[in-house]
Structure formats: structure tokens, C-alpha cells
Design brief:
Blueprint: H1 2-26, H2 34-46, H3 50-68, H4 71-92, H5 104-124, H6 133-143, H7 147-162, H8 168-190, E1 195-201, H9 205-214, E2 221-226, E3 233-241, H10 246-256, E4 261-267
Antiparallel strand pairs: 1-3, 1-4, 2-3
Helix pairs in contact: 1-4, 1-5, 2-3, 2-7, 3-4, 3-6, 5-8, 6-7, 9-10
């Protein structure tokens, strides 16, 4: 069942990407990098279908990944390497998408967000979207070239090439699309994992600790510290809680010590006992005074 869910989500992610790329990015001739940018250039030069070009580029990158990065990495890119151009080929044949054409700004917003959501769904299943990241990883392995340098150089070359037949306006829209793509993808990757990290500094830390453990049913860690001015020994309480428990925690702390210092920060990745591992229930008799 888990494998079926993974395949379904990867399929949905590629479907969203293909729809957004074809409807909002390619039709508006936005300047972007990656394999999509390469396909737009070859489409302009030779008139080849964009889906066909993506098939060819992905096939080459897949073989290179298999040879230099191993079977495991290659398999993680296989589904997307096949699905994305397949869905693009379907959307290329559909004329009803022309009715969805909006003004350029709305198109770059929708194109970026939908593509980002699609990529996020794929990566959350521990799959890879492939593309020039494969080439960047090969160069890093062989010549220690940082991945981001390779990606930046490739994207810069593609953008300069596309400027020869496009214009600066499409470049700006393409940059907005890329920014929104990254933002939406990061939101999908961190959604459902985001919680609040709370720091509490109070001379009544022991009473607060007991109330948080027993009444609020959250884990607590104590850090030994000193106050900065008087160098007074003190314990700092740290806890990770879901957003819904924040107001209850603040009430508990303020009822015990109205002068307590509370710091709240959002964290996106939490692991360990009580989060990614099954937690142990705490009962009052187990609390240490």
C-alpha cells in the first residue's frame, strides 16, 4: 500500500509539473533554466516537440547517472524521467489550455507555484526530478565542483542563449517563476513537519517543568546556564510543541511566573523519540522532584 501511495504521489507531482510548464511557462515563453529551458531553445531552433526533447535529455542524463552515480540514484529519477515528458506530450496536444491563458504575471505566479508543488510532492517520496542536478552531482564526484556552481553556470548559459530570441520582460517573469517555484517546493517539503521550539527562562523552572510534562503532555529538556549579568546559576527549559498548544503553554508559564522569558521559533524538521519515534507516556509517579 505504501509503494502504491508513493507511485500515486510521484505521478500527481509530475502531472502538476507538466500542466504548469506547458500551460503557463512554455506558452508565455518565459526564460528559465534547467531541462525545460533546454527544450525551449531546441524547440525554437529546430521545431522539435518539447516533450521529445525532454525525453532525449532525460535519457542521456539517466544513463550518465547510472554510469557515474550508481543504480540506486538512477532508479530514483526513472519515474520522473518517463512521466514528465509523457504528460507534457499529452498536454501539448490539447487546445483547451489556450482558454486558461491569463496575463503574464498571473501565469508566472501559477506556473511557479504549481511546478513547485509538483516538485515538492516528488521529492517528499525520496524520488528525484533528475535534470541537470544529475550532471552537477557527477562533476562534484569526479572533480569536486560544488553542485550549486554547476547548476548556476548551466542556467546562466541557457538564459543567455534564450535572450537571443526572447526579451528582458520574459527574463524577469522567468526569475519570478523560479523564485515562486523554490518557495512552493520548500513549503510542500516542510508541511506537516513544522512545529514550535520554545525556550523558557524562569527561576520557577522546576514547577514549570512539572506542569508542562504532566498537564500539557509535552517533552521538556533542561539546559544548565548562567545569567549574563549576575552569573546566577539557572536552568533553561526547551520544548517542541505543535502550534495548537502554544496558548496553553503560555498560560501555564505566565500563571506560575508572569516575569518568565519565553522565546518562540518555528522549526521545520524534528526527529527522535516522541516525534518520528513512538513516545513514552509520562505519569505523575515517574516525575523526578
Amino acid at each position: 500500500m505504501k509503494h502504491l501511495q508513493t507511485v500515486v504521489l510521484i505521478t500527481l507531482g509530475n502531472l502538476l509539473c507538466a500542466f504548469a510548464i506547458n500551460t503557463f511557462i512554455i506558452h508565455n515563453k518565459f526564460i528559465i533554466g534547467g531541462v525545460t529551458g533546454t527544450s525551449i531553445i531546441f524547440n525554437h531552433l529546430f521545431g522539435l516537440p518539447i516533450s521529445t526533447i525532454i525525453y532525449i535529455v532525460n535519457a542521456i542524463l539517466f544513463v550518465l547517472g547510472l554510469l557515474f552515480l550508481g543504480k540506486r540514484f538512477a532508479l530514483s529519477t526513472l519515474l520522473s524521467s518517463i512521466m514528465l515528458p509523457f504528460f507534457l506530450g499529452i498536454f501539448e496536444q490539447m487546445s483547451w489550455q489556450n482558454e486558461l491563458m491569463l496575463d503574464s504575471f498571473l501565469s508566472c505566479v501559477l506556473g511557479g507555484i504549481l511546478t513547485g508543488i509538483g516538485n515538492g510532492l516528488i521529492i517528499r517520496q525520496n524520488a528525484s526530478t533528475g535534470g541537470y542536478d544529475t550532471l552537477a552531482l557527477i562533476l562534484k564526484k569526479a572533480y569536486k565542483v560544488p553542485v550549486h556552481i554547476t547548476v548556476y553556470v548551466i542556467d546562466t548559459c541557457l538564459i543567455l542563449a534564450m535572450l537571443t530570441f526572447s526579451n528582458l520582460t520574459n527574463l524577469v517573469y522567468g526569475l519570478i517563476t523560479t523564485f515562486l517555484l523554490s518557495y512552493a517546493m520548500n513549503k510542500v517539503l516542510t508541511s506537516g513537519n513544522s512545529q514550535l521550539q520554545i525556550f523558557i527562562i524562569s527561576s520557577h523552572y522546576e514547577e514549570i517543568r512539572r506542569n508542562l510534562l504532566y498537564d500539557l503532555d509535552v517533552g521538556v529538556t533542561l539546559l544548565h546556564s548562567q545569567t549574563g549579568f549576575h552569573k546566577k546559576e539557572l536552568e533553561v527549559l526547551i520544548t517542541i510543541i505543535p502550534n495548537i498548544k502554544l496558548q496553553s503553554l503560555k498560560k501555564i508559564v505566565k500563571d506560575i511566573d508572569p516575569t518568565a522569558f519565553i522565546s518562540v521559533a518555528e522549526v521545520s524538521e524534528i526527529g527522535g523519540r516522541g516525534y518520528t519515534l513512538e513516545r513514552k507516556t509520562v505519569v505523575a509517579s515517574e516525575l523526578i522532584d
